[in-house]
Design goal:
By secondary structure, this protein is an alpha+beta fold. The protein is about 30% helix and about 30% strand.
Amino acid sequence: MQIIGLTKENVNDYEDFLTKDIAEYIGREFTCGFVVARDDEDKPTAGIVWELRRGDDELDTNSRILFIKAYDEESAKVLLDEYTESAVLVECSTSSFSLPSSLGSVEKSALEKAGFSLEEKESSVFCITLADIGMALFKYGNETDARIKPLREAEDRFFDSMIAGLDMDGYRGNCEDLPFLPREYFDNDVSCYYEDNEEVYAVTLIHMKPSGKAELALLYSLDDDPENLIRVMKQAVIYADDKYDPATKLLVDRYDDRIRELSEEYFPKAKGITVFEGIRMEELPEREEIDIRYYNEEEWDDDFEEY
């Protein structure tokens, strides 16, 4: 078996195997992946893509598997053995996944044998058309706010400052690599921000995936007032109506409490697809303890004189 690392240069060769949306992840700052192929063949028999994420402790690194596919048990075992070595190499504390319930029996069996739990759940991500999201948001009025502007009107300096501020405050949406993404990653005609005297009060960032589905990459407000979130979402829908078909689907990840609460209020019938979720604690080698001696001024002078 040969292991082929996925890069920006070769990922297009494997796009049909991975899907376009997964292939788009390759080359991003914290995303890794590889495929497995038989020594005498070019076509992959297995593949995996994962994203490194910061844990609750700033020293912790976790891995989230975004994609896994294998055609046979042998390839699946090689795939997960190699993945385990990679996870340990970068000192991941845990590995987890949330994958469609259409996951094949080969992959499910391999994951369980590799020590992952496997549980059927509702995905935190739901899909809603622009028409339906507009109907829900404009039910109580369709007023706009002149202070909310499309991202295309932001100067590069302002955009960089805004993203740096979000990252510093720990707001990255579902983009762990937010500070590293070019502004072109987001739809600058639909994404928008609520700004007054160069103070950013709310932001919504929309990404158009290669499959044609839009994705709510980030929804943020400076304070706890949900109205600011609704204002920027309404404006984004207005901009989207001018550009996309009303049947265009928007993926919304309920990744924090505020988005979860807004979803329950405005989209109570929206449900995520059934997924398999799993997690595994990684067995990391024990870190060597470093003996650090702290000197007071008098001890420092005495030790220095010995040399």
